[in-house]
Design goal:
Blueprint: E1 5-11, H1 15-27, H2 32-49, E2 53-61, E3 67-73, H3 94-101, E4 104-110, E5 113-120
Antiparallel strand pairs: 1-2, 2-3, 3-5, 4-5
Helix pairs in contact: 1-2, 2-3
């Protein structure tokens, strides 16, 4: 990956596989964990803020060489909470997946909303 990737898109179901493909193409290597995190972050926006919400997705390298994926949305009030869903719950596992594969993750308030980010180990 050379330059950081920055794309503006609408959080729509059809954008999820497109974002996964874009991440894979930009990194140039298999990256299932990064693609999974991209899917989960976009799906959270669709689920909690609604289809068609404008978002910005960025992909870059940290100083240590990890891959940093971030999704910025316009709602500072829809905060993410790591839940422990019951065995019969059909939703609520996205952040658990992100937490399991990412080295670290978090949420930052921005002037116009929030950015949810995660950092994952780079693959050779």
């Amino acid at each position: 990956m050379t330059a950081p990737l920055l794309i503006d898109l609408l959080a729509l179901p059809k954008a999820v596989p497109e974002a996964r493909r874009t991440v894979r193409e930009h990194l140039g290597v298999p990256c299932p964990e990064v693609q999974l995190c991209a899917s989960e972050l976009l799906t959270n926006v669709i689920t909690h803020l609604g289809e068609g919400t404008p978002v910005t997705m960025s992909l870059s390298r940290t100083e240590t060489g990890d891959v940093r994926l971030a999704v910025t949305d316009p709602d500072p009030h829809a905060w993410l909470v790591l839940r422990r869903p019951g065995a019969d719950d059909e939703t609520g596992r996205g952040l658990l997946l992100l937490d399991a594969v990412a080295r670290r993750w978090g949420v930052d308030r921005t002037p116009g909303g929030k950015t949810v980010w995660c950092e994952l180990p780079a693959r050779p």
